[in-house]
Amino acid sequence: MIFLPAGKYRCFCISLLFLAIFSGIALVYIKQAARRDLKQFETHAIIIANDVWALNEAGVKAYLQLAVNANHYKSLGVAIPGDEGFHMVISPQLSGLPEALFRMGLIWIKDLSTPIIHGGQNIGTLYGKQYVRVVFPLFNILIFLLFVLLTAIFVIHLFLNRRYLERQVEERTQNLRESERRFHDLVDLLPEMVLETNLDGRILYANKAAKNQLGIIFQSESTASFTDFIVAEDRARAKKAFRESLTLPQGLKELTVRDRDDHTFPVLLRAAPIVKGNKVTGARMIIVDITERHRLEEQLRRDQKMKAIGLMAGGVAHDLNNILSGVISYPELLLLDLEEGNRLRRPLEAIRQAGLDASEVVSDLLTVARGIAANREVSNPNKLVADYLASPDFLQLRSRVPSITFHTSLDPDLGNISCSPIHIRKCLMNLITNAVEAIQGMGIVTIVTVNHVQREAAPCNTQILPEGSYAKIIVGDSGSGIAPHEIDHIFEPFYTKKVMGRSGTGLGLAVVWNTMRDHGGVVSVVSDMHGTTFELYFPAVADPVAEEAAVQDWQALKGNRESVLVIDDEPRQREIASQLLTSLNYSVATVPSGEKAVEYLQSHSADILILDMIMDPGQNGRVTYEQILKIHPGQRAVIASGFAEDDEVTKTLELGAGAFVAKPYTLERIGTAIYKTLRS
Length: 680
Fold this sequence. Notes:
680 residues; alpha+beta; Beta-Lactamase; Heat Shock Protein 90; 7-stranded mixed beta sheet; 5-stranded antiparallel beta sheet; 23 strands; 24% strand; elongated
């Protein structure tokens, strides 16, 4: 290897230098050959001068013939005064290689002429044509120069290669030292624990993670056994796995390890033999802390449990909503026709309120089962907190617990959030109600709002709080706290320490959990003997708060005989919707399925549809609406469903449906939705 300028540039420089040297030598040689030929030609003139003086043509002819053959003349001639053609000799034509070189221009002809002097007198002229054959000696010079060049390159190569080899030996020696250091550095960077032991299990090497986590001290590594850090219950299995690893690499073994602080944690251990030559000298182990994996597995089991319970609850909720429609709507229809002082109003209002209370429980079931299907709007959490604290529900709660003080601290610069306000108020109601019930006697409940900036993702109970800006609602109490073993279960549906059916349904915190998840937020809980604090993290948005619509009297929601088509598979629901909408001065038609609705609208039209989402066993509301839009593009519709099917509701709203109304709906809710959709 030659350490010269690399690549093509190096070859170009060498070639250019070689050509320059060769060209210079060739130029000098050609000039010298030209002078030599001229001198030789003059010598010929001197030699034949006596024969020319004596007019000895035979002698002149003989010498010229010899000169032509010896010096590669094409022709030689002598001219004397009075006889320009005294004598001329012509050589045979070139043949073979000289002829080929002549045709290529590498051999050419030059003219020569010199006077013939005898006794100081010019007696004639010797003239001729000579083949210039410098190509042959120049070729020999080229071969010689190439030999010299290759010899020089070889010598330089030997010299430089020796230096290169010396550097290589030095570098590889250094690399071996660096490799060992790098190995130890890299192993020390691993979060996993790495150990090397002898045949007895005594630790010969431990990386930094093992030293820090297990408390291995360097001076005592030769006396500590890796089994000393395994809990007693797993020690026998660990020793057996170690003995087997001295023969063949072993698969992962799950064991429990005790750290330097005497805390236990689960690990996966894998060991392989250390072989030097043909002899096993010990074992090399890698130990992985799987505490986080166990946490995630527990979280997965919890999510699967909540999903299973939610699916069951969702099916029940669907049927209950259809039943509750009659309990809520029929009293409402009867109340429309009763005077204010009628003695039947109070029991009918009680029946209606009971139905509404039951529908709230069903709504909680749906939140757990399918999440939130309601429309989102930009709100400020301070306004939501203030609205709840001014609500009849909170005022009634506060009147029941006069010994409890409520403190609020609302950040005036709190960021806005995109949310379903009704579900956020429900979260507040559940958390504040739980806080009140956690206090025995006198105590304090605090409600705080504050902005929070998360610089990087961090664990938050069993969840992960991503980086970003958040608006945080904090609800705390001064109760006796939640037991540590119960913290992991409080968000599960139907898990409660209250008396089921009397002071709680077991759904309150499950609703909070699902609401936060559906809002892209996180809920955390901290509890000790001095009380419990729940923190709700909502992603903040830069959008302004949506304008609040003015509250309308239901009488203002009456229609002008617009046609409404109710599409629902439940006869009771069709009857209720027909009577409610008729009382609002709409012209109502009903059909029992999506297929019947499409058939009806082939020959009829409707100003607006009331569309159920699930109509087994036929097609659902979204498919029905898609087909209707092909018949009547721009058809207005309101979704009315007792089952919050997120994806289907969202897709139907994207198709052009104006609103979503959850069953069982009241006269005001369905009237408002139709009124706004018709005028949108």
